[in-house]
Amino acid sequence: MSQNKTAAANPGAAKDGGQEGARPGRRAPLIAAVVAIAAAIGITAAVGLGGGDKAPGAKTGPVAQVSGGSDNTKAATVLDRPFAKPALVLTDTQGRKFDLREQTKGKPTLLYFGYTHCPDVCPLTMSNIAIARKQLPKADQDKLQVVFVTTDPERDTSAELGKWLPAAGDPSFTGLTGDFKTIQAGARAIGIGIDPPKKEKDGSVVSMHGAQVIAFSPTSDQGYVLYGEDTTADQYAADLPKLIKGENP
């Protein structure tokens, strides 16, 4: 089923043990089906966000509304209720303070939460965006901001992100690390659930995180388009020229 009718209800929650062959957990099919059916008959669907990965006692996240429409071929979900950009102040790969709102203000921005020990979803997502970015004119490449926020800050130091991100994606991408609770709160503000990494008895580390990419408009600084983990490089390449202008893909 296409991801294009799934709001940010953690459709691509990735559960990875840091071992080869681990695959992301998939709790989205039912939600995706409900949204797709509602959209097909022209009904606006309200989907709860962040509920799948709540920590004990955590409050339910915000709600996104997805308009009707029967086109299941698009990768993008345009949100009727865009998200405010998270008020995240973290540390970049150079060890410098990075204020997400201030330093991406007025710039087309793709935001993703993941971690460097992820065996599949995270590096594939970064690679697909990097491939798509290279197809843009140089001026547009320079405008696009891609921000990767770690969900595993204990292991993903600034130095580790600085080594991994250029190889997995592109040297122009921004990698951020910091306090886990701060990161978790920032993710939840845009409907993405993440859990603290959990160490298993065999020494492996299990991490669960929402695998959505959210695009923020350069004109409003709001997150108005969502992409699921199955979005391809070609699909990003088709949409990026419009995202850079703040248009709907």
Could you state the order of secondary-structure elements as H and E? EHEEEEEHEHHEHEHEEEEH
How many whole angstroms does the radius of gyration measure?
17 Å
- Sum up the overall morphology in one term: globular
Structural class: alpha+beta
Discrete helix count: 7
Q: Which percent band covers the strand fraction?
A: 15-25%
Instruction: Provide mean pLDDT, rounded.
Output: 79
Q: For the report, how would you describe the main beta sheet?
A: 6 strands, mixed
| Number of DSSP E strands | 13
Walk me through this protein's architecture.
The protein is an alpha+beta fold. 28% of the residues lie in helices and 23% in strands. It contains seven helices and 13 strands. The strands form four sheets. Strands 4-13-12-7-8-9 form a six-stranded mixed β-sheet, with helices on both faces. Helix 3 packs across helix 7. It is globular and about 45 Å long. The protein starts with 13 loop residues before the first strand and ends with a helix.
Question: What is this entry, summarized?
Answer:
The protein is α+β, with helices and mostly antiparallel strands and 249 residues long. It has 7 helices and 13 strands. The strands form 4 sheets. The protein has a 6-stranded mixed β-sheet with strand order 4-13-12-7-8-9, with helices on both faces. Strands 1-11-10 form a 3-stranded antiparallel β-sheet, with no helix packed on it. A two-stranded antiparallel ribbon has the order 2-3.
Defining key terms:
single chain, alpha+beta, three-stranded antiparallel β-sheet, 23% strand, globular, disordered N terminus
